Amino acid sequence: MFVIINSTHTRINRSHLVDLYEKVSWESPEKKFAAKVVNLLYSESDSPLQYKINRLGGRSKQEKWILQSEVFNELLKVVTAHKRWIESHLDMKADRCYALVRDYLKGVKDVMGEIWGQNERYMFTRDVSLKALIRVLDDLIVDRKLISAWEEQRSHQPFAELVKPWATLVKDFRADGFYERFPAKGQLERVRKIHQRLLDAIVG
User: Fold this and answer.
1) Tens digit of pLDDT per residue, the chain (204 long)?
2) Buried-state track 124-140, b at ≥16 Cβ within 10 A, e below 16
3) pTM of the predicted model as reported, rounded to 2 decimal places
4) Where are the domains of the chain?
5) Secondary structure of the chain: what % helix, strand, coil (to 5)?
6) CA-CA distance, 42 to 49, in Å (whole number)?
């Protein structure tokens, strides 16, 4: 298959590449690691994103919220930026990193349950906001007090406590008027604006 693709320059879908990262030997450890975490977020029964990630060949008929490649790209940034911390605190184990991401998302869901998954009327669990949520996690990993509480409790509660102020932002994520509240030239800029709005609400 590789020879055929290579000789004909066939473009491979990004999601197929993410699936391959776990299996090929030449990819970076960070990419393999991030791909494993994405796979767990998709498949584990306790994941807030179970079957909500759009994977090519996925069997679930449930509504999809975000592309696998988009989740992978955001998590890869986290893994790359905090590799030393992940090595020292999580032993560079995908299941332990998954637990961190899972508990963070559970904490967010606990606070934003009113609009979590309500994608017809709200934009909070659409791709643009989910990417911003992962970027907030990237910021929070350096919060020693928060992470210490999570390591001690191993639950979503420390994250839920921290993001409680987001409950006041529910109206900002209504689908009606969303693009006016977060004006941008494209999705990249809009993700940055959502990220900043969420971050400002919890750190001032």
Assistant:
1) 444 444 444 454 455 455 545 554 547 999 999 999 999 999 999 999 999 999 976 666 789 999 999 999 999 999 999 999 999 999 999 999 999 999 999 999 999 999 999 999 999 999 999 999 999 999 999 999 999 999 999 999 999 999 999 999 999 999 999 999 999 999 999 999 999 999 999 986
2) bbebbbbbbbbbbbbeb
3) 0.88
4) 2-203
5) 65, 5, 35
6) 6
